[in-house]
Amino acid sequence: MTSVVVTEGLTKRYGRRPALADCTLDIPAGHVVGLVGPNGAGKSTLLQLICGLLRPSAGRLSVLGGEPASGSARLGFVAQDTPVYSGLSVEEHLRFGAHLNPSWDDQLAHERVDRLGLDPKQKAGKLSGGQRAQLALTVAIAKRPDLLLLDEPVAALDPLARREFLQGLMEYVAESGTSVVMSSHLVADLERVCDYLIVLVRSRVRVAGEVEELLATHHRLTGPRIDPEALGPGRAVVHARHTDVQSTLVVRSSAPIEDPAFSVDGIDLEDLVLAYMSEAAESGRDRVLEKQR
Predict the structure, then answer these.
(1) pLDDT tens digit string along 15-55?
(2) CATH number of the structural domain 3-201
(3) What is the rounded (10 degree) CA torsion for 182, 186, 191, 195?
(4) In the 8-state DSSP scheme, what is residue 152?
(5) Which of the residues in the chain have pLDDT under 70?
(6) How far apart are CA 159 and CA 154, in angstroms?
(7) Which of 73, 107, 60, 78 lies closest to 183, judged by CA?
(8) Does residue 23 contact residue 205 with C-beta atoms inside 8 Å?
(9) What is the C-alpha separation between 54 and 204, in angstroms, rounded?
(10) Is the dihedral of CA 44, 273, 281, 59 positive or negative?
(11) Measuring CA to CA, which residue among 51, 62, 53, 88 is closest to residue 10?
């Protein structure tokens, strides 16, 4: 299988409000995919559509070569609130997981619990936030899924707990080769673990691709003030900032940019994400102002 998720024009509306609009993606297998964007961008909606918890309003969606199915043993899902049952012990979570999933790897689950130092008799409601997140991840990966979906799994954790969670995730991915899609607005965390990026802003996909390729084809240009349209063909301006005399542009170009009027620098993942988020936000403000005129 070359793709774990394929969407074409995928849309989810609540009344007239789109939570996800005209989403077209082809997510290749074997990657750790970072799904990034501001709150309300549509990240959770996309993940819930993929795992079959929501039905699309329009468009096409294929997951692991077929229709999405809620509760599929081939999918592991950790929702934003790291869903564990406060009244069940750690061991009871593992027994529950084994009962529901025919592909359950009991050895993996118990080895992770031992390595994490979790007390099997401890109620989940008494665990720390980081421990609950680790328990939720353990239950998800012990299914041995082909695709693991994580919705803001570390958003509420302290820096040490975040690092431990991500380290455990990457150890599992290295061992299993499982494809992962993880949403977050914490770009620094994604930078550590992701090799594929999707940026969602205002319910729409702004850019998607392998991180290495995206960083190689995006550049920051600084020089005398210029109309972005004057850069010529093959150079897509993602974001522009101007003073009276100077322009700073983030440009996407597959060919080298050699212009003596500009200094040309590479950008990091955070710069790239912010450029697309800023471009979308400013376009939205422009549309609002146009309607008010």
Answers:
(1) 889 999 999 999 999 999 999 988 888 999 999 999 999 99
(2) 3.40.50.300
(3) 20
(4) S
(5) 1, 82, 280-293
(6) 9
(7) 78
(8) yes
(9) 17
(10) negative
(11) 62
- Token pair 């849309």 is found at 11
Asked if residue 266 lies in contact with residue 229, where contact means CB atoms within 8 angstroms, the answer is: no
pTM: 0.88
Cα distance between residue 200 and residue 214, in whole Å: 15
Distance between CA atoms of residues 115 and 134, nearest Å: 11
**215 beta partners:** none
The CA distance from 280 to 251, in Å, is: 15
Is the dihedral angle over the CA atoms 198, 199, 200, 205 positive or is it negative? Answer: negative
Long-range interactions of 54-59: CB distance < 8 A, separation 24+? 54/12, 56/10, 56/11, 56/12, 57/11, 57/12, 57/13, 58/9, 58/10, 58/11, 58/13, 59/7, 59/8, 59/9, 59/10, 59/11, 59/22, 59/23
Structural tokens at position 5: 């998720």
- Tell me the C-alpha distance between 226 and 249, whole Å: 10
Strand ranges (E), 169-292 = 179-184, 196-201, 204-210, 218-224, 236-242, 246-252, 263-266
- Which sequence spans correspond to the domains of the chain? 3-201, 217-292
- CB 157, CB 129: distance < 8 Å: yes
